[in-house]
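We examine the record.

___
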Amino acid sequence: MSTVRTVLFRFFRSFLVFFLLCFTVAFLIMSKREFDEVTINQVLFHMQLMRDNIVTMPGDFIQVFFWHVRNAVLCAFTFAFIRVLPLEGRGRAGLPAACCLVLSALWFLVPGTFIDDLFVKVRWLIVAFLVLTAAGTAGWLEGLSMKARRLFCWTFSGRRLAVLWGGILVYSMFYVNFFTFFQEQAVIGDFYTEGAYVDPRTVKVSGTGTKNLLIIYCESIEDTFGRAEIMGEDLLAPIRPSIRTPDLRIDQMPGADFTIGGIVASQCGIPLKSISILSGNLTGWALDRYLPGAVCLGDYLKADGYHNVYYNGSSGVFSGLDKFFRSHGYQEFMGKEDWIEKKHVDPATMNTWAIYDSDMVDRSIERMDELMAEGKKFSFALSTMDTHEPGFLSPPCVDQGFPESWAGYVKCSLSQVERLLRHIRDKGWEDRFVILVMGDHETRMPEMDGVDLKHVKGRYVLCSLTRDAELIPVRSIITHFDLFPTLLAALGFSVEGDRLGFGYNVFSADVQPEKNYRDKLRKRVLSHSRFYESLWLPEYVGSEE
């Protein structure tokens, strides 16, 4: 009886150790695949949010989490069984061999339908080891089975198991930036409270807007596309009649390298980063309000009497895009779901990602004509989508013979943008608008039509700002953040100190960023900040720092 208790004790002790080991590895794999880079402050803050029911995890993430838990239990049970199985003793084939075969079957039954490539490889290794163990206990391949099990027991015994476990723990701590988190808290401090960031709530913005505003966010379009020596041709040629040579270029900062991030950075002067373990896209989706503690471009325009409109071709729910615009002064928002619900676009005429850019421009022209007829001030923002991966050609471009390639997708999309800009010129409205044509971010693909973009130097996001001639930029390279105060200045507002968020008014010669400002932003703008968290949950976190 004491022998049985000893074996059971050894088994459960081994099971517990192996489960902690397997679950840690599973968590690291899951976090790498399902989330952005996970940091310790995100994990801690996310736990607080979940405790107070402020944020919920998406159902598919919960399923994936329990999938990893089940497999960690199975893996630990298997390892513990092999660990306590007696190495010696023939003629005991029955129960051990049967257990090995049952465990082998469980490796195919327990995981269910969701299987990834890594798990398949691990599963076949473990099943092969279990079959070899079963054969050894039955007296077949006994020598090979004995060597394999002794190697397993030697590897996962005592000090070696402790070293392995310790190594994984240390790697996990580096992975979640455990040491950096405490260094930032104790030594470096909060970047947002050191003077680099100017809280718009403390800045006086006076005057009134004298023109309408048009912002066109061109999906993944960068200034590089106009360099024929790299791309083989000038892919920006379709919009050259309107932008000619842009005098501004956007140096992309962290937190502005995806669509909603680029939009938030340009309208609020801050990056979009994860405050929880959910990615930047999913943070806005999971919370009820979008940056309620921030003051953004739309908030100022609405207060000044502007009617603000945003048109989006893809899902407005994805990434919380609808929440952002509706939370910050936009009275009209249209996303893919809205186009379908209001029967403005037939779903059969859409591509797999969004409505085509040709349809987007048609709808935008119709609405802008209505707004101009009403005679009230308005801002109109829209996003193109045909250059989102995997790339699409609007039907008119197909008829015109544009090629099914990235060069074709880019030129087609920009030809539709030019059609909208040409409509404004044909109507004689140029003097009544400030027009910003910009990429939302650099293209995220490493290669386009055989052109290796990873190693191209001097890549910038496209930026063309049509404004009054007397407004001359004092520098040509800007960030997304700079557009926030710059657009207000172009419209006729006066911004006290010419700074908002991390942005500087590009027309101000009196207030300019320090020489290494962009390098400093790149290093620290995504650092942990209690102040940044307060922009998402002002009443929960508190901003009295």
In short: The chain has two domains: 2-184, 211-537. The mean pLDDT is 85. The domain at 211-537 is CATH 3.40.720.10 (Alkaline Phosphatase, subunit A).
